[in-house]
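Subject: Sanity check before I submit

Could someone independently write out the structure tokens for this chain? I want to compare against mine line by line before I put it in a report. The sequence has 191 residues.
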Amino acid sequence: MPAANPDDATALDTACENDESPPDADPLDFAFVGGSTFGAAMLVAPLVTFLARKFGTRSPMYGGVVALAGGFIAASFASEAWHLYLCQGVLVGVGVGFIYIPSIAILSQWFSKRRSLANGITSAGSGIGGVTFSLITGSMIENISLTWSLRITGIIAFVMNFTAVVLIRDRNKVIQPAQHPFDTELLSRKE
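---
Independent answer below. Compare away.
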């Protein structure tokens, strides 16, 4: 699933630290932006699991596509550090969470043998894609500008993730997996 990798923010953070950053931002702000992206993605997991169970896998993923692309594009208009926190930190993070969380369970539905190998290949692909996209983004920042790099990143994220969501197929109706946003029985379980 070609979701934006929180590590992709590194090239963007470097450009912001140079000359295109909001005037009140310092290097610590950019570190918090990257961290808040990952944090937001994980914090929405119970909500996304609930929505995926209630409305199907695709519905929250479409919302994530819009949030992810919108976050990058909105970040291109940031004039203060808190704009980056909200756009590139929280909104991109929510988008990543809404795309990633429903997609992680789908691959194992299609493999009964060599499931670990399939998961390993997709994890490696995600890492390679993240590195490649970071290098491309760094080149765009150097040759175009930070603002247009963010906009182009948002457009690419929208097109690629929208295409992936359209093509993704789950087997939830066949296997009927138990999905709990938060399993309260784990708190009272005695072993």
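---
OP: Matches mine. For the report I'm noting this point. The mean pLDDT is 83.
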